[in-house]
C-alpha cells in the first residue's frame, strides 16, 4: 500500500501525556525498497482474512468486499496518523464481515495507541488463536497487558509462539526478561530489516518498563534506519506513528 508524499496528518487520539492532539511536523514516506534489497516478509504487508479477500475478488459477498475496502482505509488512516479514524474503519469492517475480527492485528495496534489496552489484548489473543506462530501479536498482547496488570502478571499470561530469528530473541526477551541492548547489538550487523525490528522491539520493551528515554533512543533509531525510512512494511509506519504519538522528533 502506498500513500502520497508530504502528508500533514492530524492525529485523533484520546488526550493524555503520551498522546498529543496533533503532529508537530509532516509525516512523510519514501518509496519501498527496490527488488535488490533484502526484505523480511511479514504479514504486516498483507490484509488479514483470506476468506474475506476471496469473496471480495470473486464477488461472492458484497459485505466482504466492502470490509476489505474498510480495512484498507483503516490501514491508510493509521499510516497518516489518524489512529481513531483507523479504528472506526476496522470496526466497520467487522460489522460488515465478522470473520475479519480474528485477523485484525492492525486494529490491535491502533487500540494500543488509544490506551484501550483491554480491547487491544483481546484483539491480539484472537489473532494468536488463529495463527499461533505469530510472535509479534504475542508481544503486543504483552505490551497491552503490562499496562493493565503490570509486567510480572503480563509474563504469566504470555502467549506461546515460534518466531523467526530476530523475533525469537525479542520474544524471549519479553517472555523471560532480558537486555534490549544485547538484542540490538546482536542484529546491528544484520540485514536492514532485522536491525529495524531489533531496535523497534528494544524500544517497546523499555516502554513496557516505563523507561521512556531509553525507549525513545531505540524507536527513533528504528525510524531513522534505512528499513524504517524506505520500507512499505506496516510496522515501519507504526514506528513513525509511535514517535508522533509520543511527540518525539525522528527526522
TrEMBL record:
GO terms for cellular component: chloroplast
First and last residues of every TPR repeat: 67-100
Highest rank taxon of the organism: Eukaryota
Record key words, sorted: TPR repeat
Protein's name according to its UniProt entry: Uncharacterized protein
Amino acid at each position: 500500500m502506498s500513500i502520497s508524499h508530504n502528508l500533514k496528518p492530524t492525529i485523533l487520539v484520546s488526550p493524555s501525556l503520551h498522546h498529543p492532539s496533533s503532529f508537530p511536523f509532516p509525516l512523510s514516506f519514501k518509496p519501498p525498497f527496490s527488488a535488490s534489497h533484502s526484505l523480511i516478509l511479514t504479514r504486516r504487508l498483507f490484509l488479514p482474512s483470506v476468506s474475506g479477500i476471496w469473496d471480495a475478488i470473486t464477488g461472492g459477498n458484497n459485505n466482504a468486499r466492502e470490509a476489505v475496502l474498510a480495512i484498507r482505509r483503516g490501514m491508510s488512516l493509521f499510516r497518516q496518523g489518524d489512529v481513531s479514524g483507523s479504528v472506526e474503519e476496522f470496526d466497520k469492517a467487522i460489522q460488515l464481515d465478522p470473520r475479519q475480527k480474528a485477523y485484525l492485528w492492525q486494529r490491535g495496534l491502533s487500540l494500543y495507541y488509544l490506551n484501550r489496552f483491554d480491547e487491544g489484548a483481546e484483539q491480539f489473543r484472537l489473532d494468536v488463536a488463529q495463527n499461533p506462530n505469530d510472535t509479534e501479536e504475542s508481544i503486543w498482547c504483552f505490551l497491552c497487558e503490562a499496562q493493565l496488570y503490570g509486567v510480572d502478571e503480563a509474563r504469566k499470561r504470555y502467549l506461546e509462539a515460534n518466531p523467526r530469528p530476530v523475533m525469537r530473541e525479542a520474544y524471549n526477551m519479553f517472555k523471560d526478561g532480558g537486555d534490549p541492548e544485547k538484542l540490538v547489538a546482536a542484529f546491528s550487523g544484520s540485514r536492514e530489516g532485522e536491525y529495524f525490528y531489533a531496535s523497534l522491539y528494544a524500544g517497546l520493551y523499555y516502554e513496557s518498563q516505563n523507561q521512556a528515554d531509553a525507549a525513545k533512543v531505540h524507536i527513533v533509531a528504528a525510524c531513522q534506519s534505512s528499513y524504517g525510512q524506505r520500507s512499505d512494511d506496516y510496522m515501519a509506519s507504526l514506528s513513525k506513528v509511535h514517535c508522533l504519538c509520543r511527540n518525539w522528533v525522528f527526522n
